[in-house]
Write a structure and sequence with these properties.
Blueprint lengths: L2 H19 L5 H8 L3 H13 L5 E3 L6 E4 L2 E2 L6 E4 L2 E6 L1
Antiparallel strand pairs: 1-2, 2-3, 3-5, 4-5
Length: 91
């Protein structure tokens, strides 16, 4: 699998996790999903963030996803409710 395909699959996994759970996965979860070592999962996450394909960023000085458009991992004034469930925050 080439890097672009891997980044695309990582993007999909992060978005899918946000939708399902209401929060972002940790890079160790990305690694587990792809059957790779945690340090490789971290590299994939950082490489994905560095693409700047959309508004997304890590919490300063960490490897934790804060925002991944349109979602935010930290509470904001923008609450997203779907079918009566509010488990997401928007950017």
């Amino acid at each position: 699998m080439n890097d672009k395909q891997l980044l695309d699959k990582a993007f999909h996994f992060i978005m899918e996790t946000f939708v399902k759970r209401g929060d972002a996965p940790h890079y160790t979860e990305i690694a587990k999903n792809f059957g790779i070592q945690p340090d490789e999962g971290k590299r994939i996450l950082i490489d994905l963030m560095n693409t700047r394909v959309m508004p997304m960023w890590l919490y300063p000085g960490t490897d934790l996803i804060v925002s991944f458009a349109p979602f935010n991992n930290l509470p904001t004034q923008y609450r997203i409710t779907v079918e009566g469930q509010q488990k997401w925050f928007g950017q």
